[in-house]
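Let's practice the habit of predicting before peeking. Look at the sequence and jot down your guess about where helices and strands might fall. Then scroll down.
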Amino acid sequence: MNGQRLGTIVGLELTQRTRSVAWYVLLGVFALLLVIVTALSFLAWGSVPQPGSATYSTIVYITLLLVVLVSPTLSGNAVNGDRDAATLAPVQVTLATTAEILLGKVLAAWITGLAFVAVSIPFLVLATVAGGGDPATITVSLLVLVFEVGVIAAIGVALSGILPRPLFSVATTYLVVAALVIGTLIAFALVGLTLRSEVTSSSRSFEYDAYSGDTVPCFPGEESSEAYPCDEDAELSCGPWRTSTYDVPRFDYVWWLLAANPFVILADATPAQFDENGYPRDLFGQIKTGVRSAQQPPDLDQRWDDCAPRPQNGDQRTPEEVSAQSTPSWFIGMALQALLAVGLLWWSWSRTRTPAGRLPSGTRIA
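Done guessing? Here is the structure:
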């Protein structure tokens, strides 16, 4: 791997991508969308304490969404587009190796995607000044965002080397990205609803009709008071136990299907901010809490006794406690995405290397 040749390929790719006016128009449209999103975010989150943290997470997610929508177009025809334009073969006959050509195109597509992240920086700074989070939240969220841009760029370049037609490779790149973003959610919902367990629910109610007058017996552990007058000497009258069964979905069996989702990885890896009551202040915490809650198994033996001491509110866990007591999955998701990108790049290398033993019918060489 030669650094000078690699730098030359990256420079050629970037020059080719940024030569047209359409590139700058696209960046301008991206900036305009962020202006609108930032203004709406401050209006939407203006009534909550520290709206900057919620606004910051919203801008990061919108940036990731727009990059996911744009990057396949910028990288999905990197190899077969040059082959159709008869500009790939002249590069292949130079000292540049196939690995250097592919890596140079991946780096160029990565840098191109990071240009959109750079456009979002002023808006992220504005949200940070307004209280957008601590340094750990900002650092980790930006690192994950940079990683996701690189993964999508690598997938697009790899598929452009595997598939002979640019239009087909761009469409396939969109399908792969859609499988990661939307397909994981659909698989999680459908498989989770398919796997079901039976819940046995037992309940017993207090018989109010058995008493007359203004007072009722005191429940176990309670004393009569002005706010709740009750007769401490009266015997509690309870109805019979009733038992019923019903099925519940088992999302705790399939929560790992969400591990490779880029938006889940971003939320799961980023340190979330919680208020004094343990509830999330930003989108990172809300999505993380939702995913971590899916890991919790349902209670298959439920009992409710109206005649027993009433449960205290302290028995319920806050979203912050649920998040802290569950398993993170972001590193698994990043590893799966990296393996997918590396595997596709290896396949692309085998299809692009020269001399080629066999090419698809109709493939242009020079």
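How did you do? The longest helix spans residues 98-129.
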